[in-house]
Automatic annotation (TrEMBL):
It comes from Microbulbifer pacificus. Homotetramer. CDD domains: AL_MDR (cd08252). It is found in: Cytoplasm. Keywords: Cytoplasm, Metal-binding, NADP, Oxidoreductase, RNA-binding, Zinc. Signal peptide: none annotated. This is Zinc-type alcohol dehydrogenase-like protein. SMART domains: PKS_ER. It comes from the Bacteria. Belongs to the zinc-containing alcohol dehydrogenase family. Quinone oxidoreductase subfamily. PANTHER family: QUINONE OXIDOREDUCTASE. One of its GO terms (cellular component) is cytoplasm. Residues 16-337 form the Enoyl reductase (ER) domain.
Length: 341
Protein backbone atom coordinates (compact mmCIF):
# COMPACT_ATOMS: atom_id res chain seq x y z
CA UNK A 1 0.00 0.00 0.00
CA UNK A 2 1.01 3.64 -0.42
CA UNK A 3 2.33 5.53 2.60
CA UNK A 4 4.30 8.62 3.49
CA UNK A 5 7.00 8.03 6.08
CA UNK A 6 10.51 8.71 7.25
CA UNK A 7 13.69 6.86 8.16
CA UNK A 8 15.57 9.93 9.47
CA UNK A 9 14.34 12.83 11.60
CA UNK A 10 15.19 15.86 9.45
CA UNK A 11 14.30 19.54 9.02
CA UNK A 12 11.27 19.88 6.77
CA UNK A 13 13.29 21.49 3.96
CA UNK A 14 15.20 18.20 3.47
CA UNK A 15 13.71 16.10 0.62
CA UNK A 16 14.05 12.92 2.74
CA UNK A 17 12.17 14.41 5.73
CA UNK A 18 9.00 12.75 4.37
CA UNK A 19 9.10 10.15 1.60
CA UNK A 20 6.55 8.43 -0.66
CA UNK A 21 6.80 4.71 0.16
CA UNK A 22 5.24 1.31 -0.52
CA UNK A 23 4.74 -0.73 2.67
CA UNK A 24 2.83 -3.90 3.64
CA UNK A 25 -0.84 -3.61 4.49
CA UNK A 26 -1.38 -4.45 8.20
CA UNK A 27 -3.68 -7.21 9.59
CA UNK A 28 -6.24 -6.23 12.26
CA UNK A 29 -5.80 -7.52 15.83
CA UNK A 30 -8.91 -8.63 17.78
CA UNK A 31 -10.03 -5.10 18.76
CA UNK A 32 -8.89 -3.31 15.58
CA UNK A 33 -10.59 -1.76 12.60
CA UNK A 34 -8.70 -1.85 9.31
CA UNK A 35 -9.55 1.49 7.70
CA UNK A 36 -9.03 2.62 4.09
CA UNK A 37 -7.85 6.16 4.84
CA UNK A 38 -9.64 8.75 2.64
CA UNK A 39 -8.61 12.04 4.30
CA UNK A 40 -6.23 13.15 7.03
CA UNK A 41 -5.47 16.33 8.97
CA UNK A 42 -2.03 17.43 10.14
CA UNK A 43 -1.24 18.53 13.68
CA UNK A 44 1.76 20.04 15.50
CA UNK A 45 2.35 16.61 17.07
CA UNK A 46 3.26 15.32 13.58
CA UNK A 47 5.94 17.98 13.22
CA UNK A 48 7.23 17.37 16.75
CA UNK A 49 7.60 13.62 16.13
CA UNK A 50 9.25 14.31 12.74
CA UNK A 51 11.65 16.99 14.05
CA UNK A 52 15.42 16.30 14.29
CA UNK A 53 16.44 14.42 17.47
CA UNK A 54 19.65 14.94 19.51
CA UNK A 55 20.91 11.47 18.44
CA UNK A 56 20.90 10.96 14.67
CA UNK A 57 18.45 8.02 14.84
CA UNK A 58 17.92 6.05 11.61
CA UNK A 59 14.83 3.82 11.60
CA UNK A 60 15.14 0.34 10.09
CA UNK A 61 11.42 0.27 9.22
CA UNK A 62 9.68 3.48 8.10
CA UNK A 63 8.08 5.64 10.76
CA UNK A 64 4.54 6.56 9.71
CA UNK A 65 3.15 9.74 11.27
CA UNK A 66 -0.36 11.21 11.40
CA UNK A 67 -3.07 11.14 14.04
CA UNK A 68 -6.27 12.51 12.49
CA UNK A 69 -8.12 10.45 9.90
CA UNK A 70 -11.42 9.64 8.26
CA UNK A 71 -12.01 6.60 6.10
CA UNK A 72 -13.96 3.44 5.36
CA UNK A 73 -13.76 0.28 7.46
CA UNK A 74 -12.65 -2.64 5.26
CA UNK A 75 -12.18 -5.34 7.93
CA UNK A 76 -12.68 -5.74 11.68
CA UNK A 77 -10.99 -7.85 14.38
CA UNK A 78 -12.73 -10.85 15.95
CA UNK A 79 -13.73 -8.95 19.14
CA UNK A 80 -15.21 -5.89 17.38
CA UNK A 81 -19.01 -5.74 17.64
CA UNK A 82 -20.05 -2.16 16.92
CA UNK A 83 -18.46 -1.59 13.48
CA UNK A 84 -18.42 -3.50 10.21
CA UNK A 85 -17.05 -3.19 6.67
CA UNK A 86 -18.42 -0.13 4.86
CA UNK A 87 -18.76 2.04 7.99
CA UNK A 88 -17.39 5.56 7.57
CA UNK A 89 -15.30 6.34 10.64
CA UNK A 90 -13.05 9.04 12.09
CA UNK A 91 -10.49 8.93 14.87
CA UNK A 92 -7.18 10.33 16.20
CA UNK A 93 -5.77 6.93 17.19
CA UNK A 94 -2.75 6.00 19.25
CA UNK A 95 0.67 7.69 19.16
CA UNK A 96 2.39 4.39 19.97
CA UNK A 97 1.09 2.81 16.70
CA UNK A 98 1.76 3.68 13.03
CA UNK A 99 -0.14 6.82 12.01
CA UNK A 100 -2.57 7.66 9.24
CA UNK A 101 -0.19 8.78 6.45
CA UNK A 102 -0.96 5.43 4.77
CA UNK A 103 -3.64 4.01 2.50
CA UNK A 104 -4.77 1.55 5.19
CA UNK A 105 -4.45 1.93 8.95
CA UNK A 106 -5.31 -0.04 12.07
CA UNK A 107 -7.14 1.67 14.92
CA UNK A 108 -8.59 0.26 18.12
CA UNK A 109 -12.37 0.34 17.66
CA UNK A 110 -12.80 1.96 21.10
CA UNK A 111 -11.09 5.12 19.79
CA UNK A 112 -13.28 5.54 16.68
CA UNK A 113 -16.79 6.69 15.81
CA UNK A 114 -18.92 7.13 12.69
CA UNK A 115 -18.28 10.44 10.89
CA UNK A 116 -20.97 13.16 11.05
CA UNK A 117 -23.76 12.24 8.58
CA UNK A 118 -23.70 15.71 7.07
CA UNK A 119 -19.95 15.86 6.39
CA UNK A 120 -17.59 14.36 3.82
CA UNK A 121 -14.33 12.61 4.71
CA UNK A 122 -12.28 15.84 4.43
CA UNK A 123 -14.44 17.82 6.83
CA UNK A 124 -14.58 14.85 9.22
CA UNK A 125 -10.78 14.36 9.20
CA UNK A 126 -10.32 17.87 10.57
CA UNK A 127 -12.19 17.05 13.75
CA UNK A 128 -10.92 14.16 15.89
CA UNK A 129 -7.61 15.18 17.50
CA UNK A 130 -8.57 18.77 18.22
CA UNK A 131 -12.11 17.92 19.39
CA UNK A 132 -10.85 15.18 21.70
CA UNK A 133 -8.19 17.49 23.17
CA UNK A 134 -10.63 20.36 23.65
CA UNK A 135 -13.36 18.11 25.12
CA UNK A 136 -11.02 16.29 27.50
CA UNK A 137 -9.37 19.57 28.60
CA UNK A 138 -12.64 21.36 29.31
CA UNK A 139 -14.85 18.60 30.64
CA UNK A 140 -12.51 15.87 31.98
CA UNK A 141 -9.51 17.87 33.26
CA UNK A 142 -10.96 21.31 34.16
CA UNK A 143 -14.20 19.50 35.14
CA UNK A 144 -16.41 22.20 33.63
CA UNK A 145 -20.03 21.09 33.30
CA UNK A 146 -20.89 20.18 29.69
CA UNK A 147 -24.57 20.73 30.47
CA UNK A 148 -24.42 24.39 31.47
CA UNK A 149 -24.14 24.12 35.29
CA UNK A 150 -21.16 26.51 35.10
CA UNK A 151 -22.95 28.92 32.76
CA UNK A 152 -21.73 32.50 33.03
CA UNK A 153 -18.29 31.62 34.38
CA UNK A 154 -15.28 32.88 32.42
CA UNK A 155 -12.52 31.08 30.53
CA UNK A 156 -9.38 32.46 28.93
CA UNK A 157 -8.25 30.35 25.95
CA UNK A 158 -4.64 31.11 24.98
CA UNK A 159 -3.64 30.31 21.37
CA UNK A 160 -7.31 30.11 20.44
CA UNK A 161 -7.20 30.44 16.63
CA UNK A 162 -5.36 27.16 16.11
CA UNK A 163 -6.90 23.75 15.63
CA UNK A 164 -7.55 22.94 19.29
CA UNK A 165 -8.60 26.47 20.20
CA UNK A 166 -11.17 26.62 17.40
CA UNK A 167 -12.96 23.59 18.89
CA UNK A 168 -12.40 24.68 22.51
CA UNK A 169 -14.07 28.06 21.90
CA UNK A 170 -17.08 26.38 20.32
CA UNK A 171 -17.48 23.76 23.06
CA UNK A 172 -16.95 26.27 25.90
CA UNK A 173 -19.54 28.55 24.38
CA UNK A 174 -22.17 26.16 23.04
CA UNK A 175 -22.15 23.40 25.69
CA UNK A 176 -20.71 24.99 28.84
CA UNK A 177 -22.24 28.45 28.17
CA UNK A 178 -19.07 30.17 29.41
CA UNK A 179 -17.94 33.70 28.71
CA UNK A 180 -14.99 33.01 26.36
CA UNK A 181 -12.02 35.33 26.16
CA UNK A 182 -9.73 34.17 23.35
CA UNK A 183 -6.19 35.24 22.52
CA UNK A 184 -5.02 36.04 18.98
CA UNK A 185 -2.19 38.26 17.74
CA UNK A 186 -3.26 39.09 14.18
CA UNK A 187 -6.27 40.65 12.46
CA UNK A 188 -7.04 37.40 10.63
CA UNK A 189 -6.78 35.18 13.72
CA UNK A 190 -8.77 37.71 15.81
CA UNK A 191 -11.56 37.61 13.24
CA UNK A 192 -11.49 33.78 13.22
CA UNK A 193 -11.81 33.42 17.03
CA UNK A 194 -14.79 35.78 17.03
CA UNK A 195 -16.37 33.65 14.29
CA UNK A 196 -15.83 30.58 16.50
CA UNK A 197 -17.75 32.30 19.31
CA UNK A 198 -15.31 34.26 21.50
CA UNK A 199 -16.89 37.25 23.26
CA UNK A 200 -13.57 39.07 23.76
CA UNK A 201 -10.17 38.90 22.08
CA UNK A 202 -6.85 39.83 23.70
CA UNK A 203 -3.33 39.70 22.27
CA UNK A 204 -0.96 36.95 23.46
CA UNK A 205 2.08 38.95 22.31
CA UNK A 206 1.52 41.05 25.48
CA UNK A 207 1.26 39.61 29.03
CA UNK A 208 -2.27 38.16 29.06
CA UNK A 209 -2.97 39.31 32.65
CA UNK A 210 -2.36 42.94 31.59
CA UNK A 211 -4.52 42.44 28.50
CA UNK A 212 -7.36 41.08 30.67
CA UNK A 213 -7.12 44.03 33.06
CA UNK A 214 -7.34 46.38 30.06
CA UNK A 215 -10.71 44.87 29.03
CA UNK A 216 -12.05 45.00 32.61
CA UNK A 217 -11.88 41.24 33.32
CA UNK A 218 -8.78 40.99 35.54
CA UNK A 219 -9.50 37.44 36.75
CA UNK A 220 -11.07 34.36 35.15
CA UNK A 221 -12.48 31.09 36.51
CA UNK A 222 -10.62 28.87 34.05
CA UNK A 223 -7.60 29.10 31.74
CA UNK A 224 -6.86 26.71 28.88
CA UNK A 225 -3.37 27.34 27.50
CA UNK A 226 -2.76 25.90 24.03
CA UNK A 227 0.62 27.52 23.42
CA UNK A 228 3.98 28.20 25.11
CA UNK A 229 3.38 27.13 28.74
CA UNK A 230 6.60 28.75 30.07
CA UNK A 231 5.84 32.10 28.41
CA UNK A 232 2.32 32.39 29.77
CA UNK A 233 2.62 30.75 33.21
CA UNK A 234 3.32 33.86 35.39
CA UNK A 235 0.51 35.82 33.73
CA UNK A 236 -1.84 32.85 34.13
CA UNK A 237 -1.00 32.67 37.84
CA UNK A 238 -1.94 36.36 38.13
CA UNK A 239 -5.12 36.07 36.08
CA UNK A 240 -6.65 32.93 37.61
CA UNK A 241 -9.32 33.49 40.27
CA UNK A 242 -8.78 32.06 43.76
CA UNK A 243 -9.71 28.33 43.54
CA UNK A 244 -9.72 28.56 39.76
CA UNK A 245 -8.31 25.93 37.39
CA UNK A 246 -5.60 26.03 34.71
CA UNK A 247 -5.07 23.37 32.04
CA UNK A 248 -2.01 23.25 29.76
CA UNK A 249 -1.29 21.02 26.77
CA UNK A 250 2.22 22.06 25.66
CA UNK A 251 5.38 20.71 27.36
CA UNK A 252 7.23 23.21 29.53
CA UNK A 253 10.96 23.64 28.88
CA UNK A 254 11.81 25.08 32.31
CA UNK A 255 10.52 23.89 35.71
CA UNK A 256 7.09 25.45 36.28
CA UNK A 257 6.82 27.81 39.28
CA UNK A 258 3.74 26.00 40.66
CA UNK A 259 4.17 27.76 44.00
CA UNK A 260 2.73 30.88 42.31
CA UNK A 261 -0.63 29.08 42.47
CA UNK A 262 -0.49 28.19 46.17
CA UNK A 263 -1.89 31.44 47.67
CA UNK A 264 -4.95 31.01 45.45
CA UNK A 265 -5.31 27.22 45.94
CA UNK A 266 -5.55 27.16 42.16
CA UNK A 267 -5.51 23.82 40.34
CA UNK A 268 -3.01 23.01 37.58
CA UNK A 269 -3.76 20.06 35.32
CA UNK A 270 -2.29 18.61 32.12
CA UNK A 271 -4.24 17.37 29.15
CA UNK A 272 -2.58 14.81 26.87
CA UNK A 273 -4.93 13.47 24.25
CA UNK A 274 -2.98 10.21 23.88
CA UNK A 275 -3.07 9.24 27.59
CA UNK A 276 -6.14 6.99 27.24
CA UNK A 277 -4.81 5.09 24.21
CA UNK A 278 -1.15 4.95 25.30
CA UNK A 279 -1.98 3.44 28.68
CA UNK A 280 -5.09 1.53 27.52
CA UNK A 281 -7.00 3.07 30.42
CA UNK A 282 -10.23 1.40 31.56
CA UNK A 283 -12.15 4.34 30.10
CA UNK A 284 -10.38 4.51 26.72
CA UNK A 285 -13.71 3.94 24.97
CA UNK A 286 -14.65 7.44 26.14
CA UNK A 287 -12.78 8.73 23.08
CA UNK A 288 -15.17 6.84 20.79
CA UNK A 289 -18.06 8.23 22.83
CA UNK A 290 -16.72 11.81 22.64
CA UNK A 291 -16.43 11.50 18.85
CA UNK A 292 -20.05 10.26 18.71
CA UNK A 293 -21.09 13.43 20.62
CA UNK A 294 -19.02 15.61 18.28
CA UNK A 295 -20.65 14.00 15.21
CA UNK A 296 -24.11 14.68 16.63
CA UNK A 297 -23.19 18.28 17.51
CA UNK A 298 -21.88 18.87 13.99
CA UNK A 299 -24.95 17.27 12.42
CA UNK A 300 -27.31 19.47 14.45
CA UNK A 301 -25.17 22.53 13.61
CA UNK A 302 -24.13 23.26 17.21
CA UNK A 303 -20.50 22.94 16.06
CA UNK A 304 -18.88 23.75 12.75
CA UNK A 305 -15.85 21.93 11.39
CA UNK A 306 -12.72 24.02 11.34
CA UNK A 307 -11.08 23.20 7.98
CA UNK A 308 -9.18 26.21 6.65
CA UNK A 309 -7.50 24.46 3.68
CA UNK A 310 -7.80 21.12 1.84
CA UNK A 311 -5.24 19.80 -0.66
CA UNK A 312 -5.09 16.67 -2.83
CA UNK A 313 -3.55 14.12 -2.91
CA UNK A 314 -1.99 12.75 0.29
CA UNK A 315 1.69 12.72 -0.77
CA UNK A 316 5.14 13.47 0.61
CA UNK A 317 5.27 16.77 -1.32
CA UNK A 318 1.94 18.01 0.04
CA UNK A 319 2.71 16.80 3.56
CA UNK A 320 6.05 18.62 3.55
CA UNK A 321 4.16 21.81 2.60
CA UNK A 322 1.63 21.22 5.39
CA UNK A 323 4.36 20.61 7.97
CA UNK A 324 6.15 23.78 6.85
CA UNK A 325 2.94 25.76 7.34
CA UNK A 326 2.34 24.26 10.81
CA UNK A 327 5.90 25.08 11.83
CA UNK A 328 5.22 28.79 11.25
CA UNK A 329 3.02 28.67 14.40
CA UNK A 330 0.48 30.82 12.53
CA UNK A 331 -1.98 28.22 11.29
CA UNK A 332 -5.66 29.07 11.59
CA UNK A 333 -8.14 26.18 11.88
CA UNK A 334 -7.14 22.85 10.27
CA UNK A 335 -5.15 21.76 7.22
CA UNK A 336 -6.58 18.67 5.52
CA UNK A 337 -5.21 16.37 2.79
CA UNK A 338 -7.44 13.98 0.91
CA UNK A 339 -7.23 11.12 -1.59
CA UNK A 340 -4.34 9.04 -2.93
CA UNK A 341 -2.83 9.44 -6.40
N1 LIG B 1 -1.42 17.72 24.95
C1 LIG B 1 -2.19 17.40 23.92
O1 LIG B 1 -2.92 16.42 23.96
C2 LIG B 1 -2.19 18.27 22.71
C3 LIG B 1 -3.18 18.05 21.74
C4 LIG B 1 -3.22 18.90 20.64
C5 LIG B 1 -2.29 19.90 20.50
N2 LIG B 1 -1.32 20.03 21.45
C6 LIG B 1 -0.33 21.11 21.32
O2 LIG B 1 -1.03 22.33 21.47
C7 LIG B 1 -0.45 23.32 20.66
C8 LIG B 1 -1.54 23.94 19.80
O3 LIG B 1 -2.04 22.97 18.90
P1 LIG B 1 -2.93 23.44 17.65
O4 LIG B 1 -3.23 22.25 16.85
O5 LIG B 1 -4.07 24.26 18.14
O6 LIG B 1 -1.82 24.35 16.92
P2 LIG B 1 -1.88 25.36 15.77
O7 LIG B 1 -3.14 25.12 15.00
O8 LIG B 1 -0.60 25.30 15.05
O9 LIG B 1 -1.98 26.77 16.58
C9 LIG B 1 -1.63 27.91 15.92
C10 LIG B 1 -2.10 29.13 16.71
O10 LIG B 1 -1.28 29.32 17.86
C11 LIG B 1 -1.21 30.72 18.13
N3 LIG B 1 0.08 30.99 18.77
C12 LIG B 1 1.32 30.87 18.23
N4 LIG B 1 2.25 31.19 19.13
C13 LIG B 1 1.61 31.54 20.28
C14 LIG B 1 2.03 31.99 21.57
N5 LIG B 1 3.32 32.14 21.88
N6 LIG B 1 1.08 32.26 22.49
C15 LIG B 1 -0.23 32.09 22.21
N7 LIG B 1 -0.68 31.67 21.01
C16 LIG B 1 0.22 31.39 20.05
C17 LIG B 1 -1.33 31.40 16.77
O11 LIG B 1 -2.14 32.57 16.92
P3 LIG B 1 -1.79 33.94 16.15
O12 LIG B 1 -1.64 33.56 14.71
O13 LIG B 1 -2.97 34.79 16.43
O14 LIG B 1 -0.52 34.44 16.78
C18 LIG B 1 -2.01 30.37 15.87
O15 LIG B 1 -3.33 30.69 15.52
C19 LIG B 1 0.68 22.63 19.87
O16 LIG B 1 1.91 22.85 20.53
C20 LIG B 1 0.31 21.16 19.95
O17 LIG B 1 1.40 20.28 19.83
C21 LIG B 1 -1.26 19.26 22.55
Amino acid sequence: MKAVGLFQYLPIDAEESLLDLQIDQPEPGPRDLLVAVKAIAVNPVDTKVRAPKPDAIVETTPKILGWDAAGEVVAVGSAVENFGPGDQVYYAGDITRPGCYSEFQLVDARLAARIPRTQDYSAAAALPLTSLTAWEALFDRLEISSTGKDAGKSILIIGAAGGVGSMAIQLARALAKLNVIATASRTKSSFWVKQMGASHVVNHRNPVDEELTDIGIPEVDYILCLADTDQHFPAMANAIKPQGKICCVVDNKEPLPLNLLKPKSATFVWEFMFTRSQFATDDMDRQGWILEQIAELVDNETLVTTVSDTVEPISATNLRLAHRQLETGRTIGKLVLSGWE
